[in-house]
Specification:
The chain is built from 20 helices and no strands. It is an all-alpha fold and 430 residues long.
Length: 430
């Protein structure tokens, strides 16, 4: 099961184009909302640290570490959500679970926009924020497995890579949307206004987006694969557990490098290289544009030549290029054009892993445990290697004084991930 080629017994003639398009839209829109918030929290990490985690007289770095600690805690609830909602999705269907998780995600994110700060309610403020992050973590844990199951189970023959890549593509759109809103606010508001109330606006904007996503999911059909195979006998628990661990290893590089280059980068540029907020955001937008540009082509390419060569190429390039990329950004003599090209390339390399990644995970599990299995593999990887990335990088830099820690982190995780990816079978055209 951990690497076998997946075959659904449902006739593909039963999957007309309209439900396929609806499945892509309904599955991906939730990811957009989730990663929009994910990006916003990362882009405004320094502001959130000051408003929620830095009491009078507290240090800036200390507050940022606490902000990332709250971020990491929420990520550790993703596996809980993946297990809880995944089990529901494998028993009652993908559709009802996707409706529930988008409602939870929208509500929790919107409430962050109206939370009182440390100056208003004292030590209660970070606890309230952390509680809402936990709710987000639970719902996000159920989101990925359900969305990818829907997309790949509706996919026509030989197109799982392409269909699954839309999950990752809407991650890029969500991060870009968050960066765009942050950049707009930084342009039209003063620094004081942004710190005082402007940071709330991106979180409040989640409400209308979430309502649109909810409406699309209410019209979603259940997948043919689940209707025909979802209640078949489940494989042994040990077999599923081994596949989950292997799957987490295969995506750990994608998780770590993606978070490092696409989310942590703004805070790194501001706090370590003393770049302005708007310039740091612009760099991140360029990186996310590179990321978005390669995701769908990488998914399509994996349908033609197999998942393994595409995924290994992405992981290998991160190992080779992480340190040179960061050194280039640190060099004050490097032109802005060269820096922009470098970060765009970094995002593009992550896209090579993100494109085929969802289909690769989906193909590791049979229909009866797919929502749970792929959701847990992804959530565990993200909990450890994405959720903890900001905390690990910031704290390690604080203790060692090395400004190259982000590059070492991305390269090391991708090196380990490449070992797990090397065991992938040839899923060409599946």
């Amino acid at each position: 099961m951990s690497g076998a080629r997946v075959h659904d017994s449902v006739p593909h003639t039963a999957r007309p184009p309209r439900p396929r398009r609806g499945a892509l839209l309904a599955g991906s829109v939730g990811n957009f909302v989730e990663w929009y918030e994910f990006g916003v929290y990362g882009y405004f990490a320094t502001v959130i640290a000051a408003r929620f985690f830095t009491p009078e007289g507290g240090g800036e770095t200390e507050g940022l570490v606490r902000t990332y600690a709250s971020f990491a805690l929420a990520f550790f609830f993703r596996p809980v959500g993946a297990a809880l909602f995944g089990r529901l999705g494998d028993r009652i269907g993908r559709r009802p679970v996707l409706i529930l998780v988008i409602a939870l995600m929208t509500g929790a994110t919107t409430l962050i926009g109206v939370l009182p700060t440390y100056a208003t309610v004292g030590a209660l403020a970070p606890w309230l924020l952390t509680f809402l992050r936990v709710v987000q973590g639970l719902s996000a844990g159920g989101e990925f497995g359900g969305a990818v199951s829907v997309m790949t189970e509706f996919a026509p023959p030989g197109r799982r890579g392409l269909y699954g890549s839309w999950q990752s593509f809407t991650v890029a759109l969500g991060l870009l949307g968050g960066a765009g809103v942050a950049e707009l606010l930084a342009t039209v508001l003063t620094e004081g206004q942004l710190s005082d109330w402007g940071w709330r606006v991106p979180f409040l904007l989640t409400l209308p987006m979430g309502l649109v996503a909810l409406g699309l999911r209410l019209r979603l059909e259940e997948t043919p694969a689940f209707r025909h195979e979802g209640r078949r006998e489940r494989p042994p628990g040990r077999e599923v557990a081994r596949a989950v661990v292997l799957g987490a290893g295969r995506v750990m590089g994608w998780s770590a490098a993606g978070y490092t280059f696409l989310v942590v980068l703004p805070s790194y540029l501001q706090n370590t290289l003393h770049t302005g907020f708007r310039q740091a955001l612009l760099v991140t937008v360029v990186a996310n544009l590179g990321f978005a540009a390669t995701i769908v082509p990488a998914g399509l390419l994996s349908d033609r030549i197999g998942r393994r060569p595409v995924l290994l190429t992405g992981a290998g390039l991160v190992v080779a290029l992480s340190v040179p990329l960061l050194n280039l950004l640190q060099d004050t003599g490097t032109s802005n054009a060269a820096k922009g090209l470098a970060v765009c390339g970094a995002g593009a390399v992550v896209g090579l892993m993100a494109g085929p990644g969802p289909a690769m995970l989906s193909e590791m599990f049979p229909t009866s445990v797919r929502h749970t299995g792929l959701g847990l593999a992804y959530a565990l990887s993200n909990a450890v290697f994405s959720g903890c990335a900001g905390l690990i990088i910031t704290e390690t830099m604080k203790r060692t004084g090395s400004v190259d820690i982000p590059a070492y982190y991305a390269a090391a995780t991708c090196a380990v991930s490449a070992l797990a990816l090397a065991t992938l079978p040839d899923n060409r055209g599946s």
